[in-house]
Amino acid sequence: MDKKKLSQRTSWFWKWFLNNQVVIALIIVLLLLTIIFVFTKVSYLFEPVGQFFAIVGLPVVIAGILFYLMNPIVNLLEKKGLKRTYSIILLFILVVGLIIWGIVVIIPEIQQQVRLFIQSLPGYIDTLTAKADQIFKDPAFKPIQEHLENSAQKILESVTDITKNISQVTIKGLGSVVSTVATIVIALITAPIILFFLLKDGKDLAPYLISFLPTKMRKPTGKVLVEMNSQLSSYIRGQLTVAFAVAVMFVTGFSIIGLNYAITLGVLAGFLNLIPYLGSFLAMVPVVFLALVTSPLMLVKVIVVFIIEQTIEGRIVSPLVLGTQLKIHPVTIMFVLLTAGKIFGIAGVILGIPFYAVIKVIAIHIFDWYKRISGLYTDDDSQAEQE
């Protein structure tokens, strides 16, 4: 009798706990969280690793971005019969030539326009303030005039406090500024070396890493790496191509309508276009400011240029270059941008989407694997057919 009761208890415990996939999954999650918690208590052991990645991370990211941009050209030259090493050297010479051309032609023009803008900024602010006073003195704005004055006073106080804090932080952070400059210099020196070897031996990197894995894991891991590479390459090449097209369109449009600082504003618009959905609108803030202090007609011209650019970009350039390969919902992109920007700053805003695409590929494959082994997602009809 006792053996029968023990058998029933064992069967019940086995059924509801030991043989329950949900309970096992929760136990695994609990163990992972426990490991993470333990790691947080000994985080000082990983500080050298973090410092290593802080130094190596920037040149690797720069080299990776340039790799995805230049690798198709190297592959094309190699297919034409030119050796891969020679193709890389030829492409490096072309890039160095473009950089020298930019330094000689574009950079001085941008510097001159920025210097003129800084010199003219007080006059622009006075003009805008005079126009705003003229508008607010209208009787129609009298009911809200007091509220606007209070808001302006609060904004002025906030700006004063922020200025004081910035000056204090700037004095205290001179050491970090020097460290940042040194990191950037090291990145600019080492990134071309990393890029050269990525272009030369990058196609052998994935098979080399997979060779260390168990035999059964090599094929699915290779599939994941291929999809990750496809997501990153399509996004990076697409975004850089669209950003270049946006810069050219804005520079051309602003030059045609006679807006001051056309080259600088166009280049800024192209750079900000690396931020999905928000970049073009952020780039229009200084443009609208300059148009307002110039004339109402210039504001209308700027709006027309913006509408034409958005139409060409949205209907022609982006669909042809980017397509729908990432398959990420716009709301998800907004959440990723806000979260990555809050945590990692500007770098998070620019690199958040491609990293999310990589994490998404990994998560999808892990979930597919879990569905196969758990049996929790098998339809009753298909299970009955198998039985």
TrEMBL record:
Recorded superkingdom: Bacteria
Residue ranges that the Swiss-Prot or TrEMBL entry lists as coiled coil: none
Keywords attached to this entry: Cell membrane, Membrane, Transmembrane, Transmembrane helix, Transport
Membrane topology summary: Multi-pass membrane protein
Record flagged with keyword Magnesium: no
Key word Transmembrane helix present: yes
InterPro entries documented for this protein: AI-2E-like (IPR002549)
Compartment(s) of residence: Cell membrane
Membrane-spanning ranges: 21-40, 52-74, 86-107, 177-199, 240-263, 283-308, 320-338, 344-367
UniProt similarity note: Belongs to the autoinducer-2 exporter (AI-2E) (TC 2.A.86) family.
Protein name, entry field: AI-2E family transporter
Top-level taxonomy: Bacteria, Bacillati, Bacillota, Bacilli, Lactobacillales
